[in-house]
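TL;DR need structure tokens for one chain.
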Amino acid sequence: MDRRAELGEFLRSRREALPPADVGLPSGTHRRTPGLRREEVALLAGVSLTWYTWLEQGRRINASRDVLLALARTLRLDDAGRAHLLALASGDAPGPMDRTVEAPNAIIRLIASMDPSPAYVLGPRWEYVACNDAQDKLYPMLKNLPQAEQNLLWVMFCEPTARALIVDWEDRARSTLAEFRAGTTLLRDDPAVAELVEQLFARSPEFAAWWPHHDVAGFQTRLRRYRHPRAGELTFEYQQLIPSEWPHLRVICQLPLPGDDSAQRLSAWHDVG
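>> reply
TL;DR here they are.
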């Protein structure tokens, strides 16, 4: 989980995933390396091959912001990839954090006001720190998990009832993993994050297969669909808020669509259950 090592692995994964034709180079028939060669990246970014090689090897070398941005342009990184690259290379890291993060009362009242829309709060390691009543109805199994497993990544990859609940699970899981990686870049040295990744590697074949790809993505508003065992097919619009006073928290709200009764059906099932 060393950030310099991850920086090197991230650069290598993006280099190997970039077709030569995308940067105006011939593909050729004798390439042993998928994507671009190191020397091609170095040439296009205007850096020495030795320096770039050391960067991919995770050596302790300094890289200016301008040089990193040149690498980002060469590797055709999007906004999330560029931010991930800069964060990995910056050396900046938050101070030690408590294992347990609590949501302020104001945030708890905020998500309570969102009922009957499911809403919850994630901590910096993507642990659940608060849920409103509607979210408890959507994921009733969450409250029964051990505290260490009440984490969005753990639920997504290791909780079988959640997997059955989520429509298009593989697409959802891949996008969630990419967002998690981008959202926890500065926590690569955090022991709790390292433990979570290690445990997910051991418990989830999909996580073990996809994590080495180094995919990163920013949050995007989208529809999320569920196959609830009692409330039926549910569809919500997935939104995320970052409180300016508590930027280490993420407030997630799943809004009902105009004319759709998913929230009402979910609430009604619980009321009579």
